[in-house]
Amino acid sequence: MPKKNEIGAAICRYENGKLVYGPFSEGTHTRVDVKIACPKGSRFHGIFHTHPGGVAYPSDVDVASGKRVGAKVLCINSDTERRCFNVDRL
């Protein structure tokens, strides 16, 4: 069975608190480059991406990338769970 590729998107927030995703990107089975783009009227808040076959915990690269782009949260999906983390606490 072929390995699944990671997917990811920017998490964006409207002033009323509603969260939406920016455009989704697909990478390889070990990485995805998330485009930091949000719908008009919303602001970048964080990054969502998958870890197919892995764990719902950000890697050191995920944390460094999140900090570099100013993400407040990182949300990671494994095959069985989704976990979100405050970037400042990682």
What would you note in describing this structure?
With 90 residues, the protein is mainly beta. It has one domain: Cytidine Deaminase, domain 2, CATH 3.40.140. It is 11% helix and 36% strand. It has one helix and six strands. Strands 1, 2, 3, 4, 5 and 6 form a six-stranded mixed beta sheet that branches.
By CATH, the architecture is named: 3-Layer(aba) Sandwich
CATH superfamily: Cytidine Deaminase, domain 2
Unreliable segments of 5+ consecutive residues = none
The oligomeric state is: single chain
Could you tell me the mean pLDDT?
Answer: 95
- The radius of gyration is 13 Å
**Number of domain modules:** 1
User: Structural class per helix/strand content?
Assistant: mainly beta
How many helices? 1
Q: Could you estimate the helical fraction of the residues in percent?
A: 10-25%
Under CATH at level 1, the class stands as Alpha Beta
Distance between the termini: 34 Å
Biggest sheet features: 6 strands, mixed
Please tell me what the overall shape is.
Answer: globular
Range of strand content: 35-45%
SSE string, helix = H, strand = E? EEEEHEE
- β-strand number: 6
**In the CATH scheme, what's the topology name?**
Cytidine Deaminase, domain 2
